[in-house]
Design brief:
Elements: H1 2-35, H2 40-45, H3 48-68, H4 70-87, H5 97-128, H6 152-209, H7 231-251, H8 254-262, H9 267-286, H10 288-292, H11 299-309, H12 311-321, H13 326-355, H14 361-409
Helix pairs in contact: 1-4, 1-5, 1-6, 3-4, 3-5, 3-14, 4-5, 4-6, 5-6, 5-14, 6-9, 6-13, 7-13, 7-14, 9-13, 11-13, 11-14, 12-13, 12-14
Length: about 425
Amino acid sequence: MEQSLRNYLVVTGGYWAFTITDGAIRMLVVLYFHLLGYSPLQVAMLFLFYEFFGMVTNLVGGWLGARIGLNRTMNIGMAMQVVALLALTVPDSWLSVGYVMVAQALSGVAKDLNKMSAKASVKSINQSGKGFQPAEGSQSGEGSQPGEGSQPGEASLFKWVAILTGSKNALKGLGFFIGAGLLQWLSFRGGLAVLAGFLLVALLVTLWLLPSGVGKMKSKPKFTQVFSTIKAVNILSAARFFLFGSRDIWFVVGLPVFLYEKLGWDFYKVGGFLALWLIGYGIVQALSPKLLRQHHPTGASARYWALTLALFPAGIALALQQVLPADVVIIIGLILFGTVFAINSAIHSYLILAYSNHDKVAMNVGFYYMSNAGGRLAGTVLSGWVYQHHGLEGCLWWSFVFVLMAGLISFALPQQHT
């Protein structure tokens, strides 16, 4: 019991440390390159490799984690992030678009190795440790089928993965604040050096405390096995693609540019507002099990909440078309959208672990988060293109279509536990 809880805390602590640096480096790059004269759209394009290589990493990372253990892939990710941070401390003359995109690609690989490892580890630790079970002898077996079982272990899994994911998003928002503060107090390079040192310490602590072999398969999987053979995992992955694409279509480029250019907010106000939104989003995500009063969400839950979410981008777009006060519409709309989106994300994060066989959890989670990264990549590209041609309202209508697709795909998920 104590060992399982300690392992969970070590994994969570490492994930938290990484997440703070991930949010901070994004804010440092956005603010610093804005100061260098880059347009908001050009700044956003710096993150294309970050998303693309994150997608590739999730495909390969699950296979790698199953072969060498999730603790090792998590530590590899942390070490790569340290290198990515230090790579940006070079003189300004070196900071070409191509160079920064490569550094961000390294950071994207690091981020998704860390995320995949941390989330898959929760499943492995939860299954192996009695300390995560609220009742005796109630965990699903290695060969359980998707949608089976309403055991107390599933309630525990929903609770712990919601806390891990929600706290990550809240801390990423905190990282936005830390990044802006470091830029102001220590300059761009000084801030990056502090973040690299902080993460290096976290890496050494997790190397010392976390046991080896977490999530490692007994037999070495072939690379062709990275593509999931579980129908529910494939369907959920498709829904995840559209769910996260729906957020980034208007959130990555369209919204910050709109706030900056149309509403006249300064860059620090834009960054602070988005940071607060992300912190609130993470808090709601962590509280989702209590808000839903549901021990084990089902495919029906994913369908219902996705279709509910579709109302909000459409509602915001209609309100803007009616020439209502844009700042009020955006603030209220974002709060409502973020609340419902957080519940959707928490349900998805639980379902991917519930649908995964214990021995193959790393590979299933890796495949699933490849779809997540693919959706973010599509959303990032569309956000810039749609905003340039159709403005924020166009981004919102595209977001509506993507959420609707996620809801329709969710009809094919197992709709209830049997």
